[in-house]
Design brief:
disordered C terminus; mainly alpha; globular
Length: about 250
């Protein structure tokens, strides 16, 4: 914990930039809710905050449980931390999704700290929102099985495109400077897994693109399978409704 606060004080400017981006994403989510006339659920403030806290805590724990991938170097690992965040965004709306995504990263930092001077954690938040926001916005236009699938497909596509470009333009060069590691060394880690990886562009194409695509697809599938069951529980616990009287969705 002491090391975390020390690192935060040393990176104050960067953290302020992160805060500005967080507020901008909140504004974007709220604007989308108004423009699409989203049917966003409302519960008491305490219940709403409790659910967002529980969801963020679960996401923070899942963020610490990472799975290596055979086609990507070791610093790309799969986690399912977006699963509770997406369920939250589907249930309470895009704004709740952004807040939960932010709190998820904060909880992960409290549990595990940062090994990237907050750069990797910032990237996880931004890239996560690139998946959560489109999926939730499309779904809340008109809640149905089709819009849920369309939303998750849109989120997966944007996650894949934006996440890959973000890695190529910002994340990989930043890690190179942060750790004093030449880009050639980072590419070499990818080449050790896949000989076809010869530069940053092929690293992104053959490792980052399939990584983001796989993550989006897997989280979407699990969300699709779980959401109806979770929705009934949430209606009873947080909206004070019986499962039979809760508003029915077809997700």
């Amino acid at each position: 914990m002491k090391e975390l606060f020390q690192s935060a004080s040393e990176n104050l400017t960067f953290l302020l930039v992160c805060l500005v981006i967080f507020l901008a994403l909140i504004a974007l989510a709220k604007t989308a809710e108004k423009l699409t006339k989203s049917d966003v659920r409302h519960s008491s403030g305490a219940r709403h905050a409790a659910f967002l806290g529980i969801s963020a805590a679960l996401g923070g724990v899942l963020m610490c449980l990472e799975l290596p991938l055979f086609f990507a170097p070791g610093f790309y690992k799969l986690d399912f931390s977006e699963l509770p965040v997406l369920i939250t965004a589907f249930y309470f709306g895009p704004t709740a999704g952004v807040v939960t995504e932010f709190l998820k990263v904060v909880i992960k930092l409290l549990l595990k700290g940062t090994s990237t001077a907050f750069v990797g954690d910032f990237a996880n938040f931004v890239v996560g929102c690139s998946f959560i926001l489109p999926a939730a916005i499309v779904y809340h236009i008109r809640k149905s099985r089709k819009t849920a699938i369309a939303g998750m497909a849109a989120g997966t596509l944007i996650l894949t495109v934006f996440g890959s470009l973000f890695n190529a333009v910002y994340l990989i060069p930043t890690f190179s400077k942060l750790f004093g590691m030449p880009l050639e060394a980072i590419v070499g880690m990818g080449q050790a897994v896949n000989p076809a990886i010869t530069n940053v562009h092929t690293l992104v194409l053959m490792a980052v693109v399939p990584f983001n695509l796989l993550k989006g697809i897997l989280v979407s599938i699990v969300t699709y399978l779980l959401y109806k069951r979770v929705e009934s529980v949430l209606s009873r616990l947080f909206l004070g409704r019986d499962a039979n009287s809760a508003q029915r969705h077809v997700v």
